[in-house]
């Protein structure tokens, strides 16, 4: 051995070998590209989701003055509470909804819309129901009514605070997360069979073991994240409607016109809900009483005035914990008769699963246990991405990857396997447009890498 090579480390084998089965080579290359190119987006989504999952208790403390009260006694009528809130905000804002205090010791939210607010934003005035003291005035977001701290975290998690263009980041992460998870699972199975019982060691072992432990959680994150994404979410909604699995919504039409109130994804899609120009405060007590008599029994409810003439008021249960209470009724303000209703018990299975999935994703379905499980999974996902990058750094810097790329591996598949792979790619690319567009980018990157390896200088050793 010469002095020039005596102290050199053995060259690590390339991640993808020319002698590997084309299907295995294709899976490895795709898994690698997803990790390298989409990994940063998944990492950011995981960490921001981790923080979001742990904020409800912090929010309770941070906004305790607005949310809670020590007053005891008989609550004042909603009309009186609303009048106090209206006097506070003046005529610049329009009364849009009221959320009565759900239990003793909590406050009533009187919510307003104005031209200065975003589509999903409301100005909430918090009223002590016993003393009618104003406890706070905050901006809240979406149908879940999250307060400023979680609103900021939610926007960062969804769009990096970049608005609609930024939502591509979270959709990209959700679109590829299930591919990375299932691809890693397939690689684990193939390698385990080929290894004849031997056990891998080091980072690959920890990476694969952690991935197996998180597999169900990662698929859940991906599926629920896609349901409210911009492009894939629209396609999912169309498919559910075509299959008759859409979430039922209460009709507010009083003249027979089938006008449906949108509700399921308002928190994440930013849909604006129409509000009436005027709403008599005294009507809120009467409408709520009619709804209670009609079976709306949840502590947490939201009362929305009619959006215009020949429209009903709505009273909707908003308790997303277990057991879920999201029944809704439409109440004719002239007769106080219930004109339409939706009951969660009669929802299609797909609608129930969607509701539960979204609420579990947000950490509200099972309370603290749900939050801790989300936090553990999100932290594990972040570590999984970090392990993947460390493996790449140690084994195959870009100029050392070697072997065949996606296009070459596809070319070496049998004609039938190639046709199946191409069909699956086109199908998912159409249903998940962000996945399809980024897959084209992967192919371009792969072709450039192949050309660079063929025309560039020889392989450079890192220890040279």
Summarize the structure in words.
This is PepSY domain-containing protein. Keywords: Membrane, Transmembrane, Transmembrane helix. InterPro entries: PepSY-ass_TM (IPR005625). Helices cover 53% and strands 10% of the residues. It has a domain at 24-53 and 161-230 and 369-455. It has helices at residues 3-6, 22-53, 55-62, 64-67, 78-89, 148-159, 167-194, 202-227, 231-242, 266-269, 281-293, 349-361, 367-395, 406-412, 415-431, 433-455; strands at 94-99, 108-113, 121-127, 134-141, 301-304, 313-317, 328-331, 338-342. The longest helix is centred in the first third of the chain and has 32 residues, at 22-53. Helix 2 (22-53) packs antiparallel against helix 6 (148-159), helix 8 (202-227) packs across helix 12 (349-361) and helix 15 crosses helix 16. By secondary structure, it is α+β, with helices and mostly antiparallel strands.
Q: Unreliable runs, pLDDT <50, ≥5 residues?
A: 1-12, 257-277, 398-402, 459-464
Mean pLDDT: 87
Describe the biggest sheet? Answer: 4 strands, antiparallel
Envelope shape:
elongated
How far apart are the termini? Answer: 16 Å
Q: In terms of structural class, how would the helical and strand content be classed?
A: alpha+beta
Q: What does the radius of gyration come to?
A: 27 Å
How do the helices and strands follow one another from N- to C-terminus? Answer: HHHHHEEEEHHHHHHEEEEHHHHH
**Total number of β-strand segments?**
8
Q: Which bin fits the share of residues in helices?
A: 40-55%
Strand content: 5-15%
Number of discrete helical segments = 16
| Main sheet strand line-up | 1-2-3-4
InterPro entries: PepSY-ass_TM (IPR005625)
Transmembrane segments: 30-54, 168-190, 210-228, 372-392, 419-445
Keywords: Membrane, Transmembrane, Transmembrane helix
Protein name: PepSY domain-containing protein
